[in-house]
């Protein structure tokens, strides 16, 4: 498995863990067993489990298994790494919003966090596009 895929999958597992933990607190609040303010973590819970877990796992596996350009050449690797960095920065800003229980102002980090994650997916897509095309060409020329 290439280094970038390992980083993506490791990060995905970390955010799965944090996302589940936040979900547990929200569930406790829903059951009346914890402070109702934990509901403030719902948007962060959703972003961590959909973006931090599912999308990151998908990008990690895609970087690994998409058809190579030639032999072990994964094409525009700089874009893929750029996507990883932008995505991590976005997730870190979202992580900061956990503090909104005590510091309401940090809620404003949520939108730039999402923007960086979107940019991360966009960069990754720029890397992935040429890796999808050769497979389609091969399929079209198959007897
Ligand atoms: C991959 C796994 C998960 C995903 C993708 C996910 C995603 C979501 C989403 C999209 C919502 C918003 C639903 C809505 O507003 O209608 C939500 C709400 C919620 N999640 Fe999760 N979740 C996951 C796992 C968990 C786990 C493991 C827990 C508990 C330990 C949990 C606890 C909650 C609670 C308490 C709510 C609020 C439900 C309500 O509005 O009454 N989630 N989750």
Question: How many domains, as an integer?
Answer: 1
- Please tell me what the overall shape is: elongated
Total beta strand runs: 0
Can you give the helix content as a percent range? over 70%
The rounded distance between the terminal residues' Cα atoms is 32 Å
Supply Rg.
18 Å
Give the overall pLDDT as a whole number.
Answer: 94
Main sheet? none
Small-molecule binders: protoporphyrin IX containing FE
How many DSSP H or I helices?
4
Q: Quick summary of this structure?
A:
The protein has 4 helices and no strands.
Task: Summarize the helices and strands and which ones pair or pack.
Layout: H1 3-30, H2 42-65, H3 77-96, H4 110-141
The structure holds protoporphyrin IX containing FE.
Protein model, in words:
The protein is elongated. With 143 residues, it is mainly alpha-helical. It has one domain. It binds protoporphyrin IX containing FE. The site of protoporphyrin IX containing FE (HEM) has 12 residues, from helix 1 and helix 2.
């Amino acid at each position: 498995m290439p280094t970038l895929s390992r980083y993506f999958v490791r990060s995905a597992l970390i955010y799965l863990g944090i996302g589940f933990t936040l979900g547990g607190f929200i569930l406790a609040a829903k059951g009346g067993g914890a402070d109702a303010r934990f509901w403030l973590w719902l948007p962060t819970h959703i972003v961590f489990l959909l973006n931090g877990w599912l999308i990151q796992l998908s990008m990690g596996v895609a970087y690994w298994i998409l058809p190579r350009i030639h032999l072990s050449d994964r094409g525009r690797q700089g874009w893929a790494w750029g996507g990883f960095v932008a995505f991590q920065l976005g997730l870190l800003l979202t992580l900061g919003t956990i503090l909104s229980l005590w510091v309401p102002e940090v809620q404003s980090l949520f939108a730039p966090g999402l923007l960086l994650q979107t940019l991360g997916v966009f960069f990754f897509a720029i890397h992935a596009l040429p890796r999808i095309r050769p497979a389609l060409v091969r399929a079209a020329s198959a007897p």
